[in-house]
Amino acid sequence: MPGVGQICSLICGLWINYIAVSCPVDIIFVLDESGSVGSANFDLMKAFVSQLVGTLDVSSTGTRIGLITYDHQVDTGADQQFNLIDHSTVLAVQDAIAKLVYSSGGTNTAVALDYVAANMLTSAAGDRADVPNVVIVLTDGYSGGSPEVCTS
User: Fold this and answer.
1) What is the pTM of this model?
2) Which residues of 59-78 are buried (b: 16+ CB within 10 A; e: fewer)?
3) CB–CB of 57/27 below 8 Å?
4) Which of 14, 76, 108, 145 lies deepest, with the highest CB count within 10 Å?
């Protein structure tokens, strides 16, 4: 019987090969940098996202990538987030991911999702009305604001 990791790899592979490569899509990654994640796991998340981005057709007309990091609040520092219109090549996105710095703190996923909806899924930030949006949250699970996550 396959393990969870193998199932996730299979699903990710199918999604990448049959949807994201052939169809333009706006993808926003939301990375948990709370204290419970730790710097080693944050580095693993960065590596995973960078590798995943490397398989996509990143361009201004193809797949666009945005990213934020969060703990108890969204880290709005220049090197800790980028919008869908900020980078139009795989290498530019991977370079921005490599510059992310782990900080630590509490966890409030609802705040991060609210931020994405209000600030990143907008035409000013590069969101395209005629292209599907995908928000991928990478977290260790528990959010201090858990009840609010359901409404975000």
Assistant:
1) 0.84
2) eeebbbbbbbbbbbebbeee
3) no
4) 108
pLDDT in tens, 111-125: 999 999 999 999 999
**What CATH number is attached to the domain comprising 35?**
3.40.50.410
Q: How far apart are CA 133 and CA 41, in angstroms?
A: 26
Domain presence at residue 7: no
CA distance linking residue 113 with residue 30, whole number of Å: 8
117 token code pair: 């909806």
Rounded CA separation 3/93 (Å):
30
- 11 domain-assigned: no
Query: Which residue range is the domain that position 114 belongs to?
Result: 24-149
* Average pLDDT value for residue range 5-25: 61
